[in-house]
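Q: Sequence in, structure out?
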Amino acid sequence: MEAQIQNETTFYQDNSVTVTQSRYVTHSKTYAMRNISSVHIFEIIKSKNKAFFTALFGVIFLFSKDVFWVGLIIIALGIWWFVSIKNEYAVRISTNSGEANSIISKDRKYIQKIVNALNDAIVHRG
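A: Exactly. Output:
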């Protein structure tokens, strides 16, 4: 068994992901490359509605002299929250059992490296 693993071509490897010519290993799952038909980046759009309505709620307090500063603080928190919300990216693989997001990260470059390695492994497989 170990001789077979040593003869495998590794296309990508880090602490949580390994892509070889025959396997794709993530944190909790192992996929056989022969079962993966395609792979691509999938963008998960995060909703900013709550942050927007928080800032909008703060505007109500601006009309009162007693709690004017509370309104400014709520608006500032809503704007900060709105700006800090980032979309996530996933490695989406298509297998014979459907599509699945295997790795999710806010770092698009990291996800792109994994997708490129998986595409290379699919091409290498033939």
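Residues 39 and 93 are 4 Å apart (CA to CA).
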